[in-house]
Design a protein that fits this description.
Tetracycline Repressor, domain 2, single chain, HTH_TetR, AcrR family transcriptional regulator, 9 helices, mainly alpha, 0% strand
Length: 199
């Protein structure tokens, strides 16, 4: 391959990656506003200046596009929590909630899709089942370590509290989406965690 051809291939690859990233960003907006069922590939393609065939060159199906949108959001959240354990993990979760208040489109996407995905035939059903199991386990592990370090009250039921924390975070997101001026997600979560500390 000549040097000129190599440059063209690299340029084409870079443009392709940039277009995929643009499609994913616009898909977040469409899925957040219309849900998976209501958001069409045509609407996403139109938003990034492509035909549906052009969009399907980058993503083989609407299901693949949804999977990549969800994976991208999960990866970003995971990077914010990596390396944290015990009570520090719970504090990092609070910071993640604080960050989420700056990205309402992603919060709306998650709330919309997780609601739709309760139907077993929904393409994201398995993703959300697995995600909730993983998050509950991470929370329970962090609570268990915090208890062992003496930073969590001895009478706290770790597994039940992990479920409660996940439910609290999801419920806060919905309330915040409906009434952002009144609901302070990080403050409510911090107050809940404070009640778990030893007296």
């Amino acid at each position: 391959m000549t040097e000129g051809n190599a440059r063209r291939v690299r340029g084409s690859y870079t443009k392709g990656r940039a277009k995929r990233a643009e499609i994913l960003r616009h898909a977040v907006v469409v899925f957040a506003e219309s849900g998976y069922r209501g958001g069409s590939l045509k609407e996403i393609a139109d938003g990034v200046g492509l035909t549906q065939a052009g969009l399907l060159h980058h993503f083989s199906s609407k299901e693949q596009l949804l999977a990549e949108v969800l994976d991208q959001r999960d990866d970003a959240d995971q990077r914010r929590l990596d390396g944290e354990r015990g009570w520090a993990f719970l504090e990092a979760v609070t910071e993640l909630v604080r960050h989420n208040a700056t990205v309402p489109g992603l919060v709306q996407l998650y709330a919309t899709l997780s609601g739709e995905a309760v139907a077993e035939e929904h393409p994201a059903h398995g993703f959300f089942v697995g995600r909730y199991r993983r998050i509950r386990e991470l929370m329970a592990d962090a609570l268990r370590e915090a208890k062992a370090d003496g930073r969590l009250a001895a009478d706290v039921d770790v597994d039940a509290t992990a479920v409660s924390l996940v439910a609290l975070m999801d419920g806060l997101q919905i309330q915040w989406l409906l009434d952002r001026d009144t609901v302070d997600m990080p403050a409510v979560l911090e107050a809940f965690l404070a009640r778990l500390r030893p007296r």
